[in-house]
Design goal:
Order of helices and strands: EHHEHEHEHEE
Mean pLDDT: 97
CATH class: Alpha Beta
CATH superfamily: Phosphoglycerate mutase-like
Shape: globular
CATH architecture: 3-Layer(aba) Sandwich
Largest sheet: 6 strands, mixed
Radius of gyration: 16 Å
Number of domains: 1
Number of strands: 6
Helix content: 25-40%
Length: 191
């Protein structure tokens, strides 16, 4: 049995400015760096022992990973966030209500199903080629949400809120099925 820990990156400049951020990138804010430090401390308290680490090719993900752990890691292109096409960097008020489905295709972006398939396949490839038991993957909010939806019928716990920066989705992988065991959020009240 393997465990996969999907972690969302810390707050970025575009998160703070409420801009659409998918393939485009913006740096972690001072708050985002502090969130990652709090997450690292919480991970240490929980005594998680990651054997291997991966992240998307976005700097916000690799910077978060480097704060959370000292493990060497691989960057994987298909772990990137949803491609929002020409709406990248624009105001979030341009987003339609959920679910987005194929909304972004008209702007040169990705269809929801294609995005879910891309991200899920990337995680599957990592897990199937790894001999390690505890795999850390730092990724993005919509990517983690799509992975959650793909495997939702197998979950032991369920989401009730948006995906918090640096939150951890702890999955058990057994018999080719991902089962969400826990959603770990951090206390950022002192930041």
């Amino acid at each position: 049995m393997k465990r996969i820990y999907l972690i969302r990156h810390g707050q970025t400049l575009f998160n703070q400015q409420q801009k659409i951020q998918g393939f485009c990138d913006s740096p972690l804010t001072e708050l985002g760096i502090k969130q990652a430090l709090v997450a690292r401390e919480h991970i240490d308290q929980l005594d998680f022992n990651f054997d291997e680490a991966y992240c998307s090719t976005s700097e916000r993900a690799s910077d978060t990973l480097e704060i959370i752990t000292d493990l060497p890691y691989k960057r994987v292109k298909d772990l990137r966030e949803w491609n929002f096409g020409s709406l990248e960097g624009e105001s979030e008020h341009l987003n339609p209500p959920l679910p987005y489905k194929d909304f972004f295709v008209q702007f040169g972006g990705e269809d929801e199903h294609a995005f879910q398939q891309r991200f899920t396949s990337a995680v599957d490839s990592i897990v199937s080629h790894s001999s390690k038991k505890n795999i850390l993957i730092v990724a993005h909010g919509a990517a983690i949400a799509q992975f959650y939806r793909k495997w939702e019928k197998h979950n032991c716990v369920f989401r009730s809120n948006r995906i918090q920066n640096c939150s951890i989705f702890k999955y058990k992988y057994e018999d080719n099925v991902y089962i969400l065991e826990d959603i770990i959020e951090h206390d950022f009240s002192n930041l």
